[in-house]
Amino acid sequence: MTSDPSAIPLHHAARRGLLIVMTGASGVGKGTLREQWLAGQDVFYSTSWTTREARPGERDGIDYIFVTPAAFEAKVMADGFLEHASFVGNSYGTPIEPIEAALSRGQDVVLEIEVEGAMQVKARMGDEAILVFIMPPSLTELRRRLEGRATETPERIEKRLARAREEIREAHEFRFVVVNDDLEKAVEGLRAIQTAERARQLPENEWTPEDRAARLRADTLRSYALSDADLQRVVES
Ligand SMILES: Nc1ncnc2c1ncn2[C@@H]1O[C@H](COP(=O)(O)OP(=O)(O)OP(=O)(O)O)[C@@H](O)[C@H]1O
Ligand SMILES: Nc1nc2c(ncn2[C@@H]2O[C@H](COP(=O)(O)O)[C@@H](O)[C@H]2O)c(=O)[nH]1
């Protein structure tokens, strides 16, 4: 991954980059999927601002830009975020400037954010935002992942799970839903979505056989197939 425009192949220069927004409950595996999916790709991954404390091993400027509540608020007042939200006691936001610059130079952009922020991107960017909801196989498995990651206190895990129940009920608001059960299969789904959405920028007679296969695969991941009852089953399982 790089934000160096000189590294962009020439054939990308004419098109606008894709804006792909990964959202879903905390602990569902967004970061894990993103690392595998984007490895070796020339994609701009947006580093968020947050007011939360850095976890051991997290690097300022790489994992997050860690700021004080006052600095965060000043950025909000200056209209410096594409979206921002409060999540279980802390603020998180996507700085707008680097996103617009990357899209304009034809580089795909990936955001990894919680659901309220993703809804703001949907409202602000309309169809340009390709929204992908990452779904856990069950709430029990989500709890297991949060506990296994061991980054939160038991109390914070409960708060994140409570928020997850609400977030999962909103999954049909997003264009695609990828279930993160088998990691490889979920990564393959994300690759298909990216290829299919790139193909959408071209006339159909220019699609390659890979583009056509990706379009068919991506169609199987559209969220409209999900009913409220399907979502309720995940929340209750
Ligand atoms: N498909 C999977 N099967 C089993 N475990 C997984 C899978 N995907 C991710 N995990 C594990 O789940 C835990 C949470 O993953 P990760 O940190 O990527 O979630 P996240 O959605 O990015 O969380 P947050 O939103 O809080 O940053 C990690 O320990 C990770 O190794
Ligand atoms: N709305 C936004 N949500 C964000 C952003 N950056 C990260 N996040 C999400 O917050 C929760 C909690 O993150 P954690 O690192 O404390 O576990 C998680 O769902 C992230 O995806 C952002 O810029 N905006």
Automatic annotation (TrEMBL):
MF GO annotations: GMP kinase activity
Keywords, sorted A to Z: ATP-binding, Cytoplasm, Kinase, Nucleotide-binding, Transferase
Enzyme class: transferase
Catalytic reaction(s) noted: GMP + ATP = GDP + ADP
Gene3D superfamilies associated with the record: Guanylate Kinase phosphate binding domain (3.30.63.10), P-loop containing nucleotide triphosphate hydrolases (3.40.50.300)
SUPFAM superfamilies found in the cross-reference section: P-loop containing nucleoside triphosphate hydrolases
Compartments where located: Cytoplasm
InterPro entries for the chain: GK/Ca_channel_bsu, Guanylate_kin-like_dom, Guanylate_kinase, Guanylate_kinase_CS, P-loop_NTPase
Residues binding ATP, per UniProt: 24-31
Domain of life: Bacteria
The keyword Membrane belongs to this UniProt entry's keyword annotation: no
Family: Belongs to the guanylate kinase family.
Protein name per its UniProtKB record: Guanylate kinase
